Amino acid sequence: MTDHRFERLRAAQASFPRSCRTCGRVYNSAEDFLAQTVDLPAGNTGLREMLDDDDQAVVAVFRNCVCGSTLMDEFQSRRDDSPEGRARRAEFARREQPDDDAAD
Q1: What tens digit of pLDDT does each residue of 19-77 get?
Q2: Are 99 and 33 in contact (CB under 8 A)?
Q3: Long-range contacts, 80-85 (Cβ 8 Å, 24+)
Q4: In angstroms, how far is CA 101 from the centroid of its own chain?
Q5: Phi, psi at 27, each rounded to 5°
Q6: Residue-wise over 76-87: b if at least 16 C-beta within 10 A, else e?
Q7: What is this structure's pTM?
């Protein structure tokens, strides 16, 4: 798995094996699922943050089976929700804001 988008993602143990309902292809593990499926059309990362049934953040990963059917599986969120992690995200967002003074 060389795609950096999927680094450190961990699937729920109960998720695999799973199969495509359209063609029946079986994915025995998260690694199989990520390696043997393909990206969604251009401009779509296939990653969505969602809340599970216990209101815990999860990452929904959408991928296309080789037959073309779109599949989704939930992975544990890798986001650091500690005070330090929130501070890093706030600092990143602040740095990404356009500098209003630069336009003058």
Answers
A1: 999 999 999 988 899 899 999 987 788 888 888 888 877 888 999 999 999 999 888 76
A2: no
A3: 81/57
A4: 36
A5: -110, 110
A6: ebeeeeeeeeee
A7: 0.66
Question: How many other C-beta atoms lie within 10 A of the C-beta of residue 10?
Answer: 11
Taking the C-alpha atoms of residue 63 and residue 45, their distance in angstroms, rounded to an integer, is 9
Instruction: Record the tokens describing residue 17, joined without a space.
Output: 């094996």
Question: 101 pLDDT band (50/70/90 cuts)?
Answer: low
Question: Which residues, at least 6 apart from 48, have a Cβ–Cβ distance to it below 8 Å?
Answer: 59, 60, 62
Contact 18, 11 (CB under 8 A): no
Residue 89 is predicted with a pLDDT of 75
